[in-house]
Amino acid sequence: MISSINSIRYRFHQFICRRYCHNIRSLDTIRKILDYGQPSDCYQYKVYGWIRGKIQKKKSKWFLQLDDGSSAERLQVIIPVSLMELNDRSRIQNGASLECIGRLSESLGHQQSLDFLCDQFTVIGDCPPDHYQIGHLKSGMEFDLLREQIHLRPRVRYFQSILRIRNELSRAIHKFMSDNQFIEVQVPLITANDCEGGGECFTLNPANWPITNPERLYFGRPTYLTVSGQLHLEAMASSLSRVYCLSSVFRAEKSMSPKHLSEFLMLELEQAFLFDLKTLMSLVESLFRYLLDEIEKNCQKDLEFLLDMNQHHKYYDKLKSSKFLQISYQDACQMLSSKYPQLNENKKMNLNAEMERSILEICDHQPIFVTNFPMEIKPFYMKSTDDGTMAQCFDLLTPICGEVCGGSLRENRLERLVEQIKSKNVINNTNQLEWYLDLRRFGSVPTGGFGFGFDRFLQTVCGVVNIKDVVPFPRWPYHCRL
Question: Is residue 240 part of a domain?
Answer without folding.
Answer: yes
